[in-house]
Amino acid sequence: MSGETRNDFIRQIVRDDLSSGKHDRIQTRFPPEPNGYLHLGHTRAIWADFGIAQEFNGACNLRFDDTNPAREDPEYVQAIQDDVRWLGYDWRSLRHASDYFDVYYLAAEKLILDGNAYVCDLSADQVREYRGTLTEPGRDSPFRGRSVEENLDLFRRMRAGEFADGARTLRARIDMASGNINLRDPALYRIKHVPHQNTGDAWCIYPMYDFAHALGDAIEGITHSLCTLEFEDHRPLYDWCVDKVDLAGNPQLLQPLLDRGLPLEAGKPRQIEFSRLNVNYTVMSKRKLMALVQEGLVDGWDDPRLPTLQGIRRRGYTPAALRAFVERLGLSKQNSLIDFSVLEAAVREDLDASAQRRMAVLDPLGLVLTNLPEGHGEVVAFANHPKDEAAGQRDVPFSRELWIEREDFMEQPVKGFHRLVPGGEVRLRGIGIVRCDEVVKDGDRVVELRCSLDPETRPGREGANRKVKGTIHWVSARHAVAAEVRLYDRLFKVPDPDDDSDGRTYRDHLNPESRRTVQAWLEPAAVDVAPETRLQFERLGYFVADRKDHSPQKPVFNRTVTLRDTWATRA
RNA sequence: UGGGGGAUCGUCUAACGGUAGGACAACGGACUCUGACUCCGUUUAUCUAGGUUCGAAUCCUAGUCCCCCAGCCA
What are the tRNA synthetases class I (E and Q) anti-codon binding domain coordinates in residue numbering (predicted)? Predict the structure, then answer.
């Protein structure tokens, strides 16, 4: 959908800012903290940040908000870049908040000089006491009145490493009585004698999010800084930082960056908040995803059951489907829990159009065509895609002994069953109509069906037009290739695993049947494919050759999603 | 009377004082060599109460409910 037709509240703002001349070009940024993998929830932010910039001929930066070295890791820096690219986006400029540490420091000194910040010696516990509560105002820190000289001296000594972690902070001097707790003299810098993944041992003080993020946006000339709802009441602080430092009006503060060849593009950004993306039957918080991985409840960050982008990719979802999904939801400020069926519909739509068809049997039942000679063999040409001739054809070997899906036969059929029954007829996909003459059983278990193929119903013959109620898929037993097929289902049994109001947590709601592995039989043309090849196994669903484990010698497929099944949902 | 946000079909979302529309879901039906796809149809919504207006989801007033905030996390 184009920028002309999409009209969410953020696009309206952007459009207005462009037409009013407030901006002649827009600049956004996607600012992940490199402390975990990207997940489905980030897709909306990525789509908004990169997509809106793209639509309005602007640009988007990828900026790592790496201001807390204690919990960040370069492993994530690479993975995040890979995921963003996989989703189909690219950035104008790759930045790190840590690129700006010199500027942040200069900005902090300016704040001190202007009387807008002070060094506070209160401990973390004391700060909490002084902060007040949601309904009671806080009290001024006893250090709030320090002179500019003393503040400057202390701050420089903080930087020089003279003090221990937690001994002092640099605080904004705003309003300890504000109803907005973020404005009660928030910390701007804290002491952390921790090496940084990017800057090594250069710093032992690190800026806080509110300060660093606001200035980072200002430095990069971000026009529209999009973020989620929980930052709404940080906006006054965001604006305070931008305005009090005023990088655009004090370009000398940017000198360290200009010296390194970065462009001068400081401006005044506007923060706009939208609601997070939540999807039912899953969890999206980094903390919970981390726990699932670390406790071995799933098989790593790219487990196909996880909503991580890595997991979703391995599951077989396509970037186009993900983009279509978030686009369908749009942007708003309402808290929401999206039904996973919207996601499934988006993948099915994409895969129906793009995935070639093959036949596979997941739960085999032998079927013998008794009126075919022993050793009978032929190849039958099948279209690779019912709606796309350009996808070409493939040869499918056919013989006297076949595997069919066990659930496509019922000895005592329920009403409405369209498939094979004793004495009944069904069409074998691409072959013709067969009649079930005999059911071979071992005790209660059906072990083989002996059938006859009506030669007049082979494709091309007049009888081929005869109508039968059902068509089933099959593979030639002699030619079938064994494959490992992983059948995935939702990770949680309940729609809202985050809801622990009844005392039960997401851990209690794990779906024990979220993964089932079977040995399946594939037609030969399904086997010799590259990892990440997506196929529809007819009448079963969409499957992907596993990105890591699949090879033609040892085929491994993951079920991305089943086909829509109006019969099964009725039964 | 702490501050900040939000309330439209079951779930998302549109409307910018002028026919409450779309998607997903559900339910019927048509088509079908995939019980898929496609097509057609149906059901279901403006938080409440007042007010302004020829006309209100939209504007005003008063309520109700839900979400976020008391990290030296982001």
Answer: 471-546
